[in-house]
Write a sequence for this structure.
DNA sequence: CATTTGTTTCATTTTTTATTGAAATATTAA
DNA sequence: TTAATATTTCAATAAAAAATGAAACAAATG
């Protein structure tokens, strides 16, 4: 593969089918790292990163070529990002292929993570604690006290965490 | 393996080398789910879950037997939890083996995650954005504006996120 | 409607992450 | 000491997660 780039070249000239520019690489790296934190595979970070770095809309085959990912990964990654609302399809007159751009509302990632991962887990956690508190009733009195203290502590903590989520969402949105 | 438990038995009788009680199972499940979210393997969740559910200190071989995990997983899991401060060694007069208890300061998990994962990533992200803003200088004026808007937006968002972390830590602690 | 082009699906493969358990090391007891 | 017990380490293995790419499907073109 050709990785050369004429010396004086300013970015944007070597794009399209060429290799990634330094700026693109930085952006991709950044989003790989962030999206991985909320459980997304590398390929999704790459896709969003490249779309974020690029002003003009990009078609799937360009993502495949420039990122060197498979069509499967590109298709699934785009689907996921579209479902999140993090990527939009752009209409380009006379273009056969679909073209994509990054939606810049970054809070979306945090929000989705909170709503779909964190909050449900806290809720299920709280249910569980209640169930545990019931189970505790059948314990010998000797153990009841210490155990129920722990459960109360755990419940308080889960409740507090859950209270916090809407704030965080709000704060990040504005 | 024996999984029976006489009908009238109240918990705590079948412990030690027996199977897990319903309460323990709930606690373990809960902590597997939570600790997995901050990137810890199942075995660590199991260990902390069992220690949390148990009032009395537990030795490593009991963890191994009751959770059916290997000595390696037990040793490494305990090491990690000790390093986090989430598990303490308890001195028991005349006991050969080390005994462990769960530290109940649950905010510790969130705090560690924030300080060791989230904050460093935001910092590195900010560095990167600055680097990108420099790279941008070499761009054709036509692309400069749109791109620099994005970077500014990204930078603001990272800064805002990073501001928030100390609050969250504070709030969860109290 | 046939053909070309673009996209999705999903069984297979690759990569990454976690677990195992035997051997090495450390610790306590006799 | 030495033997017995407890713990850690780490190469090998297993399990989980992600990526691949060929085949099925869909959409646009002429």
């Amino acid at each position: 593969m050709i990785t050369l780039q004429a010396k004086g070249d300013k970015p944007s000239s070597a794009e399209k089918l060429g290799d990634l520019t330094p700026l693109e690489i930085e952006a991709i790296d950044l989003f790989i790292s962030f999206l991985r934190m909320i459980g997304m595979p590398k390929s999704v970070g790459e896709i969003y990163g490249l779309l974020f770095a690029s002003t003009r809309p990009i078609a799937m085959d360009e993502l495949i070529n420039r990122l060197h990912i498979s069509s499967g990964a590109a298709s699934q990654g785009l689907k996921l990002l579209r479902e999140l609302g993090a990527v939009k399809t752009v209409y380009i007159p006379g273009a056969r292929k679909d073209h994509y751009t990054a939606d810049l509302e970054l809070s979306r990632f945090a929000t989705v993570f909170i709503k779909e991962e964190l909050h449900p887990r806290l809720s299920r956690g709280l249910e569980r604690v209640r169930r545990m508190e019931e189970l505790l009733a059948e314990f010998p009195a000797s153990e009841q006290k210490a155990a129920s203290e722990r459960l109360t502590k755990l419940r308080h903590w889960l409740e507090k965490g859950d209270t916090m989520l809407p704030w965080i969402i709000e704060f990040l949105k504005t």
About this structure: Confidence is low (pLDDT under 50) at residues 1-14 of chain B. The helical segments of chain B are 22-37, 42-53, 60-67, 71-84, 107-136, 141-173. The first helix of chain B runs from residue 22 to 37.
